[in-house]
Specification:
single chain; about 180 residues; alpha+beta; Cathepsin D, subunit A, domain 1; 3-stranded antiparallel β-sheet; 4 helices; 11 strands; signal; Peptidase_aspartic_dom_sf
Length: about 180
């Protein structure tokens, strides 16, 4: 019995002192619910500006439209990565270009660096997908209240460490 009483406070102390655990679930982002049970977050795309992205955990990639890509290219805020055969939510397939965005800020509190984004035609709804959310994992998507709780966020764009491009691998269909 005595060893149990010692173990519990020790475990609590070790968890509190572990900086990796402190980074998990530390950033709360408000979402806005719109029609058809869709949820949006305010986002700042470096080289583009402020925008709103629909949160879609079923999308393998962040998606941007051609208008956003044009602005990012003018500002030097993207680099071409590859072509991708994506499977859309309706089951159809579309070949799209994938670009790496220098950085984006979700909700004003979470900078994420080197995010891969699939590019869709002009006017297409832009999506916050798993290529960004994985970098802020583990995360919680809550509908009541509508919010995202993200992990491992950087407070500033400069504080974000760039991962090795070879360490980024995705095997998820785009919708």
């Amino acid at each position: 019995m005595r060893s149990r009483l010692f173990f519990v406070p020790l475990a609590v102390l070790l968890l509190a002192l572990n900086p990796a655990l402190a980074a998990e679930f530390g950033t709360h982002i408000a979402m806005r619910e719109k029609a058809a049970a869709t949820f949006y977050v305010s986002t700042h795309i470096q080289g583009f500006g402020d925008t709103e992205l629909m949160v879609d955990t079923g999308s393998g990639y962040v998606t941007i439209n051609e208008g956003t890509l044009r602005t990012l290219k003018r500002q030097g805020g993207v680099r071409y990565v590859k072509r991708l055969q994506g499977i859309l939510a309706n089951g159809s397939e579309m070949e799209v270009s994938v670009y790496a965005i220098g950085a984006l800020n979700i909700g004003g509190n979470c900078w994420i660096h080197d995010v891969e984004a699939a590019v869709f035609p002009a006017g297409t709804r832009q999506i916050l997908g798993l290529s960004a959310l994985r970098k802020a994992a583990p995360f919680i998507f809550s509908v009541d209240p509508p919010s995202l709780v993200l992990s491992h966020c950087a407070a500033t764009a400069a504080a974000v460490a760039s991962p090795s491009p070879s360490a980024i691998a995705f095997n998820v269909a785009t919708d």
